[in-house]
Amino acid sequence: MREHTKKRPTENIELRFVGPIVNMAQAIENLKPLGFVDTSDSVSWREAYPEYSEGQLIGKALAGARYRQGLTQMKLAELIGIPQRHVSEMENGKRPIGKEMAKRLGNALNIGYKVFL
Question: Which pTM was predicted?
Fold first, then answer.
């Protein structure tokens, strides 16, 4: 009997190329009709919010991921087995998120854990 497995969403992909720089503009133009978008001028979310500390940015990412999944702090805390106040402290940048906690959060929120590190 087949077992149901969790599939990660694959609606968007990111392509990276290695090749001559002189052909880059032509490659980008050839991919646009297929629905691809050039994001080479984008900045990371850390660069976009210089007024926030590293802990605050990670907390905002946690709060956003939790919101995207439709979870309350209490429900997330139950899923990963910690008190709700710890989730609140992590979201407010007052509690660091270690590697093991990041993995637990990533699994519960269906997101790569490295965003929390």
Answer: 0.63
